[in-house]
Each structure stands twice: as C-alpha cells, then as structure tokens.
Amino acid sequence: MTLFERTLVDAERLLGPDHPDTLTSRNNLASTYEDAGRPAEAVPLLERILADRERILGPDHPATLTSRNNLASAYRAAGRLAEALPLFECTLADRERILGPEHPDTLGSRGNLASAYRAAGRLTDALPLFERTLADAEQILGPDHPVTLIGRGNLALAYRAAGRPAEAVPLLEQTLADRERILGPDHRDTLIGRNNLALAYRDAGRLAAAVPQFERTLVDAERLLGPDHPDTLIGRDNLAVAYRAAGRLTDAVSLFERILADRERILGPDHPVTLIGRNNLALAYRDAGRLAATVPQFERTLTDAERVLGSDHPNTLTSRSNLAAAYQAVGRLEQALPLLERTLAERERLLGPDHPDTLASRNNLAGVYYDAGRLEQALPLLERTLADTERLLGADHPATLASRNNLASAYQAAGRLAEAVALLERTATDAQRILGTDHPDTLTSRDNLAFAYQATGRLAEARALYERLVADTERVLGPVHPHISGRLLRLGRAKVAIGDLTSAAAAFGRVVEVDTAAYGPNHPEVATDLDALASVQEQQGNAEAAAATRARAQRIRDLHQSSPPAAG
C-alpha cells in the first residue's frame, strides 16, 4: 500500500467518507495514479469525488467544477475522448455562467476544451477556441503572464496539428524569446518552449535548425532536471526522432535503445510512455533496415498495449497499425490486411469517420491493397481519403498533399498515366508553395513526378528532374541520408533508359557508397545495390567488373544465410 492509499484509508476511518480532507486525499491518490500513467485507476476515484462534491457542495461549487474538469482530463488520458469532451464542454459552460467568462479558471477550461478538440481531430473547433483563449489571456492577464505564454504555445501547437507550420514557427519563436526574457533561459517552461520550437522546425522540414535546438534542450534538461526527469526523457526522445528524420539512423537507434532502457527502469515496463518508447525503437529499427528486429518489437508493443491500456485505447490502435506496417514492409501482406481492416473499423467506431487517425487508417489499408495488386479496392479507398482530407483539413494541408501523391501512384499503377501526371504536377507545385522548396515532402513530390515522367516516356524531363532532386536532397538532408540512395537509384535507371551507361554506372556506384555508410557494408540493401551496378557493368561490356561486383553481393547474402536468426 502506497502512502497516498494509506492516507485515504486513514482519512475515511477517522474523518468519514464525506469530510473535505477525505475528498482531498481521494483526489491526491487519483493524481498519483495519473502521474504514474495509470489513468484507468484514477477514473473511478475521480467519478466518486465528483459525485460526492455534487451531493455535499452542490453542482455549482467551484470545487465541484474543478472535480468535473479533473475527471474530464482523466477520461482523456485514458483514451476515452467521447466521455471527456462533453464533460469539458459542461465545465466551460458552468464556469462561464458561475465565475464569468474572464475568470482564470474559465480561461483554463477554454484551453482544456480546445486541447481535447485537438486530440479528437476537431481542429476547426480547436483553433478558434485557442485563438480566443490567447486573446482573452493577453487582455485580462497581460502579454507576459505565464498563462498567456502557455496559451501562445498551445495555439502554435494547434497550428502544427493543422499543418500550418509557417504560422506555428513565428509564434513559438516569440514564445521562446518571451520565456527567456521573463523566466530566464534555465526555467522549465523555457526548456519546453525551446523543445516546441524545435518540433515546429522539424514539421517545416527545417531539420538543420531543429537538431541543434533539440540537442541544446537535452543538454539543458540533463543539467537542470537530471538525466531521469520526465522532461529529460521527452527531450531525449525528440532528439532521437529528429536524428531519424535527418537520416542519422545509427544515432537514432542508439538513443532510442537508451530511452527505452531508461523508461523501463524509471517508469516500469508497463507504463504507457514506456510502450511508446518501445514503439519508437521499432520504427527506428525499420528505417535502419533491421526488419528482423522490427516485427518482434512491434508484436510485443501491441500485446503490452492491449493488456495495459485495453484494445480500444488510441495508443493500442496506433500499435496495431504500426505492426501491420511492419508486416507490410517484410511482405507479409496476408497478416497486415486483417490488422489494418480491424484498425480502420475500430477507429471509425471510436473516433468517428472524419478523425485524422481514421483517414490515416483508410490510407494505410489502401496501401496494402495496392501492394497486394488489388487496385480495384485500393483506388476507391484512396479517392475517398483524398476527398475527405480536402473537405476536413483543406486543400493545402500536408496530409492532403500526401493523399494526392498516394492516389497518383495508384493511378500510375493502374495505367491511368495522364491522370497520375496531372495530379503529381499539381502536388509538386502546391508543395513548393505551401511547404517550401526544401521541405522533405516537397522533395518526395518531385521524386514521384520524375518517376511518372519516366513511366510515360518523358525521359529527358525525368532525368533533369532527378538530377536536380538528388542535388537538392544531398544539400537538405546530407550526403548519406537513405532518401539519397533511392533517388540516385532512380536517376541511374533514367540514365540507363536513355542509354547513358557511364553516368548510370556512376549513379549506381554512389548508391552503394550511400547505403554502405547508412546501413553498414554487409547489409542486404547493399547486396541489392551491387546487383544493380553489376547489371549496368554488364551492359557496358565490362564482364570482369560485373563478375567482381556480383561476387561481392553474393558474399553479403551468404553471410546472412549463415547467420543465426535474430532474437525477438
């Protein structure tokens, strides 16, 4: 029995179940459960506290309103958004009526409801509420009040969620400058502000700006809060995600492995944050090409999430989707399909057909249909996803651009090349306008367009686009990012198609160098690259070089065939 549990037992015995101190003890125990990542245990306590305060103090007492707010927050933490939202709405309405629209608690309720709308994917409801909350806080509390600074940060995070990084970045830059000026560079809220700015830089594709911000935030958090503080663990996780996005996969994997070990030691193996850490490590393994380690990690994460959080928790649905993606990556489509079909059905039931996560599930399911050659099922699903994304998020949202790209790829596979090219040309133009020339998603759009040009016989345009794309990718992401090798490979194929075998061989040789640097000299991906190079060498009539290249590829394959299976 913990200290808080014993205190509650003693208070009920000595003071009675309805004494104010007993209610406070019950509330403290619920808060302890929430802090420990056990919201499901906090909920029944908070439900009882709310019922008791409504009975003893009345429904309009400020303490009752606080209890209602606390219960709504616990519902949200437990993944029960359908119950949290009406409670947040009720609390805000009651506080506006009882305390007035400008009371600090009312401002807090408005912010809480906006955050819940954001979590539910209702960004059109969340954004105006965040904007009003910030305007009210600036007017009532002043531009430098801590609540105002939080409101500014929350609005910026909502802009991030809405795919509007151009609006989020300046707001977060202002928030960070204000916090450094008012609170000092070492205040915890300042560290959070720096972390949020780095996240916005990452969303905007400005990885060169994001990584040093994350690195500084982590150094400061370790110095000020200690290596095991929750904020330090979050900072370490964000840096690892940034490394992964920047293609620094070795750095990302080692950091994710440390993060998971720390979370298991500090929070326990079943804490929801630990489960997220296990999921992130699996994603890093996947990106690093360590597929033998990826699938067992995702399988364990899903099993743990179902046991700890329940089968309907949003994080469990995410784990199920990630496992399906891992099965897809290793070609186990017959296992991926039922998982994705189940995830889509559950998200439609729990989150609604218009939630962003539901749209993502629909898109993911279409992707597996596509890989399985079931275009007759993939195409209508992708067309619906694009229509829904445009309707809900707008034509310029990054998710809409991604949906347009996916539909174009399916049109191309179905032989509807004219439709594919038109869609990809629009997407590439829109991405440059909305995200900027150097955003990773813009580079991906240009990659897809070049591939479509090649498929339609527009070889000179494809080669020119690939040459610019490779140069831009190396400049933006660095010389050994995994995206470089894929684009060099496609450039090499474009050069083969026009008969420029010398340049093609140089491109394929560079692919081998990039993947060797990214994955190691004996990775299966390198063997595949060597086969492509050998094929060009054979076309050049250089049989001796081709034989040596193929022999090197075979040695890599032999090495993997003789290795024992990776442990799960």
From TrEMBL:
InterPro entries in alphabetical order: NLR-like, TPR-like_helical_dom_sf, TPR_rpt
What Gene3D superfamilies does the annotation carry?
Tetratricopeptide repeat domain (1.25.40.10)
Which species does this protein come from?
A: Geodermatophilus pulveris
Q: What is the recorded name of this protein? A: Tetratricopeptide (TPR) repeat
Which segments carry the region annotation Disordered? Answer: 539-568
The residue ranges crossing the membrane are none
